[in-house]
Amino acid sequence: MIKFIFVFCASFLLVLLPVYGVPGGLSPADPNDQAVQEAAKFAVSEVDKKSNSLFSSKLIVVKEAKTQVVAGKNYFLKLQLVETNCRKDSTVDSSCTAAPDKVIQECDVVVYHRPWQNHRELTSVKCTPSSDNSVRRPQRDVLVGGLSSADPNDAGVKEAAKFAVSEVDKKSNSLFSSKLLVVKEARTQVVAGTNYYLKLQLVETNCRKDSASNSDCSPAPD
């Protein structure tokens, strides 16, 4: 009787292992699998939350996927993503395109998923500029951590400048709003997102901070 139970249990385990994988071991996964794609989409949204950029990132491709059975499942993914022209406070959809001056990032991420509790967590992320020249868009070389010149009229620079002026106003004890005259110089730094180093000219206007700022605001005479 004991021998029969042992054989039955062993057979049952042999049936389960091919389905669920070896606990603790890494198993290759199809990058196009729905669960992998959902984990990748979640990872991109979490990377965006940690980034100080004003713009959203977009997934280009899942280059590689592996899974690990734990108390749930870990997804080890190699992703390619790029910053788009869509702001984070807007909806990211198919109309969002890669910003022309942005480097394609290659990110190694780990997403932990506990499906019975509908819980996902990004437990590890490391992003570097992609070295895959077959997918890199033509662009000037950008050194990670280094400063690169930027076009003062670039949309990303303009948005950063507008944000900077609003923050300057918040810290100022003046009753009147400031207005951006010109972006004199702009440089960017690639980090986990983009830092904008800007030299701005602005002036205090005749519009109070508690009123809506618009193009009718003109420089205060004094």
Automatic annotation (TrEMBL):
Q: Which CDD domains match?
A: CY (cd00042)
Can you list the GO cellular component terms from the UniProt entry? Answer: cytoplasm; extracellular space; vesicle
The residues forming the signal peptide are 1-21
One example of the protein's molecular function in GO is: cysteine-type endopeptidase inhibitor activity
Q: Which Pfam families match?
A: Cystatin (PF00031)
What residue stretches are annotated with the Cystatin domain?
A: 21-128, 142-220
Which keywords describe this protein according to UniProt? Disulfide bond, Protease inhibitor, Signal, Thiol protease inhibitor
By its UniProt entry, which Gene3D superfamilies does this protein fall under? Answer: 3.10.450.10
Say which family it is in: Belongs to the cystatin family.
Please state what the protein is called: Cystatin domain-containing protein
Q: Which organism is it from?
A: Graphocephala atropunctata
